[in-house]
Amino acid sequence: MKSLFYLLLFILLLIINYTTAASQSIITALPGYNDTLPFKLETGYIGVGEKNEVQLFYYFIESESDPHKDPLLLWLTGGPGCSGFSGLAYEIGPMTFDYATFDGSLPSFTINPYSWTKIANIIFIDSPVGTGFSYATTSQGYASNDTKSAKQNYAFLRKWLLNHPTFLKNRLYVVGDSYGGKIIPMVALEIAEGGNEAGLQPRMSLQGYVVGNPLTDEKKDNNERIPYAHRMALISDEYYELAKSSCRGHYVSPDPNNVQCLYALRLIREVKLLFLILANLSVLQDHNYATSYVWANDETVQEALHIRKGTKQEWQRCNNSISYEKDVESVFKYHQLLSEKGYQVLAYSGDHDLRIPYMSTLKWIHALNLTVDDEWRPWTVDGQVAGLVFRIGDPVYTERYKNNEAYLTFATVKARCRSYSARVQT
Predict the structure, then answer these.
(1) Where does the UniProt annotation place the signal sequence (predicted)?
(2) Could you report the per-residue pLDDT of 379-412, keeping only the tens digit for each?
(3) Which residues contact 73 (CB under 8 A, 6 or more apart)?
């Protein structure tokens, strides 16, 4: 029986390989690193869509611990339109750029001692189509939206696992941040319902998902910016109370006939400090991001990564010109369904991220009506409250909610955690 299973799997694998036009390459050296890579890196394309017209590029890094037993993570970067390489080089990957020595020429790499690949296998994908090195073979193939992106990510993962059968039994998590936090529960539900419950092969060992500063409902998320800015002392009590009472808690798309609300919001917008802080953070990050533009657009780099020639005119860390429709307003129902099915969840938020405030994430978590299993408490790394180096405000806290045998853990992380690796102890 067991031999028959592997025979059928082998035949299916041959069929998939023939029809997907997939390609994969093991990379042992990269421009910018003057030695053999101290981790196993694979890059490649996998075709999705009716005729494989969408070619999604990926970077796969094996766990530096025990790749056959450690979990497998599919990392979805935000945007939409930001490359998986951004997550690899600027957030959780095993290498990052040496900013101190960057002079505008080809940048060099340094090793990240806090990489998540120390204990996990990670696929960093360029999704949706048009992101990073991903491309389409037809003009129609470039059109995408939330629903299509989720389905294509599921199709990508299914084909990737068929091409890498040794990882079929690894515990699987869909992870990512920002706008990726919107697509993650959609992909997870595709795996749970469209794949595993429908009996499609291969059966994936989905355990849960991880979302960082996740977009959930854009209007509701944006609505928490003013209460959050007040909590962070960026807005005076007087201005906030005026807005709170006159706008009745609705700060996004206010009633145009509510003159007092519009006046209060105008006063808040005139508080330049808020925007100066955001601008200063952007300037610092744009300087750091310049390294990836120089590196990824270098011809020798693209040859080393086995990029298909002629498929990209220019690599961008975040491609803001992709043809993309935000067709799903809220993914709260996806969180509800996955919670009911008993999947594990970790939600984490940088407590100094105004774009998607931690307060908005807490709101939808509370709306799930789960039982609190572990009360608020500080969490630490190496004996210190996590993120203390960016100390602004209260200590870091974590809270865990229980639904049957599944847990949802929420943690705040000091500063804007999308730019740094967070070792959250759950």
Answers:
(1) 1-21
(2) 777 776 652 222 222 334 566 666 666 788 888 8
(3) 116, 120, 121, 122, 123, 172, 173, 174, 175, 210
